[in-house]
Amino acid sequence: MNIKNYLFLGLFLISTIVLAQEKEISGAVVGENGLPLIGVNIIIEGTTRGTQTDFDGNYSINANPGDILVYSFVGFGTEKRTVGAEEVINVQMTADNSLEEVVVVGYGTQSKRKVTDNIASISEDEINNIPIPSLQGALTGKAAGVQITQINGKVEGGVKMRIRGISSISSSQEPLYVIDGMPLINDDESVSQAPINPLISLNPNDIASIEILKDASSAAIYGARGTNGVVLITTKSGKSGKTKISMNTSMGWSEPTNTLDWLNAEQYVELFTEASANSYGAEDTWLTEEGGYFDWMANGLDWRNGEVDTDWQSLALVDGSVQDHTISISGGSEKTTFFLSGGYNRTEAIVRGNDLERYSVRTNVDHKASDRLNVGVNVGISKTHISRIGTDNSFSTPLQAIAQSPLSPAFLENGIPNNESTIYYNFLMQEYNGDWDSDIFRVLFNTYAEYYLMEELSFRSEFGYDNNNQTEEYFAGSLTESASTNGYADANAVQSDRYSLSNYFTYNTTFVEDYDLEVVLGMSFEESARKRQFVAGTGFASDDLQTVDSASEIIDGFSTRTKYNFLSYFSRATFSLFDKYLLKASLRYDGSSRFGAENRYGWFPAASAGWIISEEDFFDNSETISLLKLRGSWGVTGNAGIGNFASLGLFTGGAYNKIATLYPSQLGNPDLKWERTDQVDIGLDFGFFNNRLSGEVDYYVKKTNDLLLNQPVPGTSGFPSITRNVGSMANRGFEFVLNTKNFTSEDFKWDTSFNLSTLDNEVTDLPGGDIVSGVNIVREGETISSFYLVEYAGVDPANGDALFYKNTLLADGSRDRTTTASYNEASRVVLGSPYPDLMMGLTNTMYFHNFDLSFTFQGEWGSSLYNSGGKFQSGNARYEDNQTVDQLDRWQQPGDITDVPQARMYSTNGQQDSSRYLEESDFIRLRNLAFGYTFPFEWTQRFSVDRLRVYFTGVNLLTFTDYSGYDPESTYDNNGNFNINVGETFYSAPPAKTYTIGLNIDI
Q: How far apart are CA 317 and CA 258, in angstroms?
């Protein structure tokens, strides 16, 4: 009995000690964005004991030291924590980026695991992390094979987005943008040749995700307009549960990414005095003599003693500012969810007189009307005001001020801009005595109803409406360039409407257990209409009266109306066998009013297949290979980006001697048909070590046939050109994406995403022969719009003459590489491409305790830029324009070795179009950076705040390049033939380098 009593007592004491060690563990579970996660499962490993987080993400559980707590939640990676001495364990969970996530595809969604296409997906965090006014700017460097370039540093500047290269000559080269199922209007409605980004009115903070459909299999479901790729934009929606209020506010400042060195007054006098002596003799002192040209420039100031030395560049490029504010409310019940937002952005450009102000609101509501019926509506409204400046090729644009002499004062004594003694028109007069304002009012509306006829079969009907109203008012007062007419004003109003109706069935079933089938069958109809009114007048009684209504004479006026439509039928079938053998096929039948009656409709088929090799038995339980998927696709897409009536012969009404007339204005081509692109893509998706290292490799070939071309015709025909299907083109390239989870621990996480792509473009057939326009050429066997120039050979050290390579063809097919001082003796040759053949993006994201850091580097190699303004800016004093400082290294005496010819005023010596002004524009740029700190949840919850984050961001902070101009990405915004004349810069402003500080608050 005594032994039994002792044993019983010992067991009782041991159990008491064990129970005494058990304690309550509490804490909060949040996501990567710091928001609480509701319903996270927490169990003690090896047991069935567990709990869940509440609406605030909080939990509590009893556990012993040494127990392992396992945190799991749908869509997030599992986390484990070992119980120690602490009683509070807070956990931040990371989204699970495995292949089970869902991506948006045309007319539906699909598990990423079963995707057999090449689709680049950009998440909400990547888009919203950097406050910028342009949607496209948020995508730069994020997707392989996608090039995004803002034309120049103007806030409204057009943005070029090229997906896997150029696939057309005269037709549209922009992708199709689709927002919440509604194809967007993407037409530039600017009254001038300088484009306005059509998507500038969209608020990037409202976007939840963006999918870029790159290959034909993914884009062919949009058939006629998929050649240039498709960008699917999904806006944010609400989630059932606690109502969440989020606010993002930021303010910052900006400056040019680069400025150039120009001659000061002393250097200007030295150079031009020498240039005059070389041209007219040293005894001719017309520049420097009393009352001479320099005295006229100085306008009474003593330039000889340094009384005037104007830095015109500092007047044109100024410090800018940016502020961006968005507030949103989201939430809902099991039946109804909602998202409401309001945004404000004001951006003052780094180019004087240019700014943007945008107001936006959005409402997205989804409602489950019954077990079978879901309905919803998305509405976005925005108002954008832009203060505009002149095009690059106008003296009223600020940056052309750099052509002015530093001897000319910018202002007169009375404070009015000096327009009396400047070489060219003083742009400051436009700011002082003129205005150019654009207002864009845009409404995006989309509604849907989805009815489940049975569990496997649903019918969805969508109706979308896009209304884009743009008005521009321009006024130039009596002191501006319009002084001779006592002022000028015009008004331009454009209303664009697009209606879209889509109806489609979706059948989704699993049969024989391992066979999954999804079929989509439907139709869509779109109609786009455009109205424009324009009126202009001159002669104003006062500069305070600035509308056309006050003009004494109406000198111009017109109105136009146009309309076009698309009617389409489409189908898609996706089949999965054993969850590892994947097949997909689609077919679209498109009709467009733009083509001839016999060729109005076109078929656009596509097919793709995939094999998840890692699911095979021989990879079973592999600790190294997490994923290995081979996929391939083929498809045909089209392009209809031409005029609405390109197939028709047109007549236009007019007047002749005040008599109404009708005259032919366009040659018709009833045989005009679709431009078609065939594309093949072979890809491999991979993942290693539980997907800590993952990525994809792709090779593609795009061949475009029946190119739509505005082909020149003989002038004797009375017409400049006719639209025809002429020629072929091919794009080939590799794409490589690598994602790594470098460190994954409780306190430190570091992820890296790297993409690299190549591009080889070639015109493969051009029956009509070369198309030469300016310094560009379209030639069979060459890259489209290659530079076609005389090759500069430097300077003759004996006499300072500019030299050129003859490059005439010899009998053996080689070229004569001897030099000549006669420009006319040299032949033009292809000397470079305006398009890069290698592109790179590198993004790093790090979390350390409550700190976060992310940054993206972007690089491009293989392209060149031609400085069309070089003959004026760096022309060894040929014209009076101020010169870049490299002109101080000019040839001055026999034996000098230099690339700058002898300065000869008003005498041509190397200023002709040649490779002298062509430069490689390779660069690497720190595109964006964000650094933030999120305050601990246990602090902020005292104030009923779920998340409080402060951050700093930077855009275009660093640029590494050997390019000597303003910026390797800034290009001319006033090209006549925008598709052929590319790769030129002409007084084009650099982009802005922007720094912002901001605050995120979630309640």
A: 10
Short-list 674, 656, 654, CA closest to 664: 654
State how far the alpha carbon of 19 is from the alpha carbons of 11, 15, 22, 26, 43, in Å: 12, 6, 5, 18, 19
Q: Whole-angstrom Cα distance, residue 629 to residue 632?
A: 10
pLDDT at 638: 86
Q: Vertex 955, ends 953 and 957: CA angle to 5°?
A: 100
Helix (H) or strand (E) holding 218: helix 216-219
DSSP per residue, 262-314: B--HHHHHHHHHHHHHHHH-TT--TTTSTTSHHHHHHTTS-GGGTS----HHH
pLDDT at 489 over 90: yes
User: Position 810: which residue type?
Assistant: L
What confidence tens digit (pLDDT) does each residue in 161-209 have?
A: 899 998 888 777 888 899 999 999 887 777 776 778 878 888 888 998 8
In 3D space, the residue among 782, 785, 803 whose CA is nearest the CA of residue 794 turns out to be 803
SS3 390: coil
Which of 780, 781, 785, 783 shows the shortest CA–CA distance to 769?
780
Cα gap 459→456, rounded to integer Å: 10
Q: CATH assignment of 140-237+318-791+826-875+911-1002? A: 2.40.170.20
Q: Choose among 479, 587, 475, 607: nearest CA to 538.
A: 475
CB 67 within 8 A of CB 44: yes
Whether the Cβ atoms of residue 915 and residue 863 lie closer than 8 Å to each other: no
- Which residues are CB-neighbours of 535 under 8 A, at least 6 positions away? 490, 491, 548, 554, 556, 557
Element (H, E) at 465: strand 457-476
> Which one is the CATH code of 2-92: 3.40.50.300, 3.40.50.620, 3.30.70.260, 2.60.40.1120?
2.60.40.1120
- The pTM (predicted TM-score) of the whole model is 0.87
Whether residue 930 contacts residue 852, with contact meaning beta carbons closer than 8 Å, is answered with: yes
Q: pLDDT digit string (tens) for 373-404?
A: 999 999 999 999 999 998 888 888 999 999 99
Torsion sign across C-alpha atoms 547, 550, 554, 555: negative
Spans of all domains in the chain = 2-92, 140-237+318-791+826-875+911-1002, 265-316
Q: DSSP H helical segments within 773-902, as ranges? A: 870-873
What residue type is 440 in one-letter code? I
Quick count: other Cβ atoms within 10 Å of Cβ 469?
17
Strand-pair category, 119-123 with 146-150: unpaired
Phi/psi region, residue 600 (left: phi>0; alpha: psi -120 to 50; beta: rest), is: alpha
Q: Which residues contact 715 (CB under 8 A, 6 or more apart)?
A: none
CA distance linking residue 346 with residue 992, whole number of Å: 14
SS3 of residue 139 by DSSP: helix
Residue 269 region by backbone torsions, left for phi larger than 0, else alpha for psi between -120 and 50, else beta? alpha
Picking from 568, 465, 575, 453, the residue whose alpha carbon sits closest to that of residue 522 is: 568
Q: What sign does the CA torsion over 261, 266, 270, 273 have?
A: positive
pLDDT at 975: 55
**How far is residue 127's CA from residue 998's CA, in Å, rounded to a whole number?**
15
Give the other-Cβ count within 10 Å of 554's Cβ.
Answer: 12
| Of the candidates 909, 891, 907, the residue with the CA atom closest to the CA atom of residue 899 | 891
| Angle subtended at Cα 370 by Cα 365 and Cα 375, rounded to the nearest 5 degrees | 30
Count other C-beta atoms under 10 Å from residue 507's C-beta: 15
Would you say the C-alpha torsion 60, 63, 66, 67 has a positive or negative sign? negative
Beta bridge partners of 79: 71
Rounded CA separation 320/993 (Å): 9
Q: State percent of the chain over pLDDT 90.
A: 60
Q: Are 24 and 87 in contact (CB under 8 A)?
A: yes
Please state, in angstroms and rounded to a whole number, the distance separating the CA atoms of residues 521 and 587.
10
Q: Are 121 and 209 in contact (CB under 8 A)?
A: yes
